[in-house]
Amino acid sequence: MKALLLAGGVLLAGAASAADITVLSSTGLTSTLEALSATYETRSGDHLVIAYATTGQLKKRIDEGEAFDLCILTAPMIDDLIKNGKASGPRTDLARSGIGVAIKEGATKPDISTPESFKQTLLEARGIAYTSTGASGVYFLALSERLGIAEAVKAKSHTITGGAAAELVAKGEADLAIQQISELLPVAGTELVGPLPPVLQNITVFAAGVAVKAANPSGARALLAFLTSPDAVATIRLKGMDPG
């Protein structure tokens, strides 16, 4: 009886210490966090409250005062939050992600192996989907300028402010989706053509920072340690990225 009471006391203590951890995360880590969250919640007893948006949207929300315990943005954005006293340093790099191209499942894969073939594929596409505020979309627009086809690309653009651009391909609204590979892979009805040619590729480093005014700083730090653990690293690779 004493042993049962003791065990019950331990469980109640664990339940009492459980808390929410508020996370603001780039959509680039959506599939990774979805795969890891249940495991973390089971192990820690804490509950993850995760809001996903593009890095640009999240940075704006944080600058406007939105509260968080842990945020996952691009490395330069985390550096900026640390510099401005909104996140504590040092920053923790979690994953490195390249940009890729997706098409409708079963469609003929275009050649994107070289800058010239990639350019030609863009010119021949009837519609191109990308995010207007995401890091990949901002880079893609700048890249189209470099390739000298910005006006042609804009004329056939199908943009979303956040989420998976490949969903427009799955619906038949665009032929190509340009986005982080980690965001292209999970979309049903589409398939990855491959990454951008190496000379045109842009690697985004996703990093994390704990809020200076976090409501649950110890929970945020524990989650951050988990996101750099071997279990998390294996999932990051599975989702099309390299660990930070």
Write up this protein.
The chain has helices spanning 2-17, 30-44, 55-63, 75-83, 115-124, 135-146, 150-155, 166-170, 181-184, 217-226, 230-238, and strands at residues 20-26, 47-53, 70-74, 87-97, 99-104, 128-131, 157-160, 176-180, 190-195, 204-211, 242-243. The model is unreliable at 1-16 (pLDDT under 50). The radius of gyration is 20 Å and the shape is elongated. With 244 residues, it is of the alpha/beta class. 39% of the residues are buried.
What order do the helices and strands come in, and which of them pair?
Blueprint: H1 2-17, E1 20-26, H2 30-44, E2 47-53, H3 55-63, E3 70-74, H4 75-83, E4 87-97, E5 99-104, H5 115-124, E6 128-131, H6 135-146, H7 150-155, E7 157-160, H8 166-170, E8 176-180, H9 181-184, E9 190-195, E10 204-211, H10 217-226, H11 230-238, E11 242-243
Parallel strand pairs: 1-2, 1-3, 6-7, 6-8
Antiparallel strand pairs: 3-10, 4-10, 4-11, 5-8, 5-9
Summarize the structure.
This protein is of the alpha/beta class and 244 residues long. The chain contains 11 helices and 11 strands. Residues 1-16 have low confidence and may be disordered.
